[in-house]
Specification:
This protein has 134 residues and is α/β, with parallel strands linked by helices. The chain has one domain (4-35, 55-131): Nucleotidyltransferase, domain 5 (2-Layer Sandwich). Helix content is 34%, strand content 25%. It has a 5-stranded mixed sheet with strand order 3-2-1-4-5, with helices on both faces. β4, α2 and β5 (110-115) form a beta-alpha-beta unit. The chain starts with a strand and ends with a helix. The model has no long low-confidence stretch (mean pLDDT 85).
Length: 134
C-alpha cells in the first residue's frame, strides 16, 4: 500500500495528512515546547533577586532543544511508513524536521519543502490532496 504524507509544522503543532489507497487520515502532534522558559521561585518584584532562580540562557536553549527533539521524534514516528513526504509550514520547524529526517536516513522520501502561512485543517488536507493526486 502506498502512503503519501503531507505535514504542516511549526514549533507548537504538526498536522499530519496521510493519503493511502483506502482514503485519507489526518492526525495532530502537539508540542510541549515553551519558547520562554519560566523562572522558578517567586514572582518578579517580590523578594530578593537570586541568580540561582533564573536559569542561564544556555541552559534554557538546551531545554528548548531537548523538547524540540522529543517533538520531532514523535512526528517522525507518525510518518515513518510514508513513501513520499511533503513538508510545509511558516517557520524554521520545516527545515529542522527535514534535517532530522535526513539524519534518520529518511531524507530520500522527502519530495518537497515549502513555506506557507498559517492554514486551517481543511486547507492543509486540500493542499496535500492537490500535491498527491490519485
Amino acid at each position: 500500500m502506498r502512503i503519501r504524507t503531507g505535514i504542516w509544522i511549526d514549533h507548537r503543532r504538526a498536522i499530519v495528512v496521510s493519503i493511502t489507497d483506502k482514503g485519507e487520515e489526518m492526525g495532530m502532534v502537539i508540542s510541549k515546547v515553551e519558547r520562554q522558559l519560566r523562572r522558578t521561585g517567586e514572582a518578579p518584584f517580590k523578594g530578593h533577586f537570586d541568580a540561582r532562580k533564573v536559569p542561564a540562557s544556555d541552559s534554557r536553549q538546551r531545554a528548548f532543544t531537548t523538547h524540540l527533539n522529543v517533538y520531532y521524534d514523535s512526528v517522525i514516528a507518525c510518518i515513518r511508513d510514508a513513501e513520499s513526504i511533503l513538508i510545509f509550514g511558516p517557520g524554521e520547524a520545516k527545515g529542522e524536521l527535514k534535517d532530522r529526517l535526513e539524519k534518520n536516513h529518511l531524507g530520500d522520501r522527502i519530495v518537497g519543502v515549502e513555506t506557507v502561512d498559517k492554514m486551517t485543517d481543511r486547507q492543509i488536507g486540500a493542499k496535500v490532496r492537490q500535491y498527491f493526486p490519485k
